Amino acid sequence: MVTVSGELDLDSAEQLSEVLLSPEAQAATVILDLRKVTFIDSSGLSVVVAEHQRASAADSRFAVAVGGAPAVQRLFDLSGLTGAITLIPDPDAVLRGE
Question: Which of 75, 26, 22 minimizes the C-alpha distance to 49?
């Protein structure tokens, strides 16, 4: 699980991308926890989409936890990605296999 808090924007998107590409983040299931993100822009969304595509190509499972982060949920809704990327309210449920 990779957890992000605060703002996910141009200044922090590259750092998140590096974390998601690191050996520690290569697993059969990767959950990006954005529940504590207060702001996300297109550069942050681009990192999420890139990770989704990478995970799909690697036949891995990728999900984004957005429960309690209305700004994040709103951006996914407006961008039309709500149905394309797995959004979950609770990352613990996925980790338990539910």
Answer: 75
Q: How many CB atoms lie within 10 A of CB 83?
A: 8
What are the two backbone dihedrals, phi and then psi, of residue 37, each rounded to the nearest 5 degrees?
-85, 130
Which CATH topology does 2-95 take? Transcription Regulator spoIIAA (3.30.750)
Q: Where are the domains of the chain?
A: 2-95
Per-residue pLDDT of the chain (98 residues; tens, 9 = 90+): 999 999 999 999 999 999 999 998 999 999 999 999 999 999 999 999 999 999 999 999 999 999 888 889 899 999 999 889 999 988 887 777 76
Residue 35 CA to residue 91 CA, distance in Å, equals 10
Output phi, psi for 33, to 5 deg: -95, 105
Quick check: pTM over 0.85?
yes
Half-sphere exposure of 35 (CA within 13 A, CB side): 15
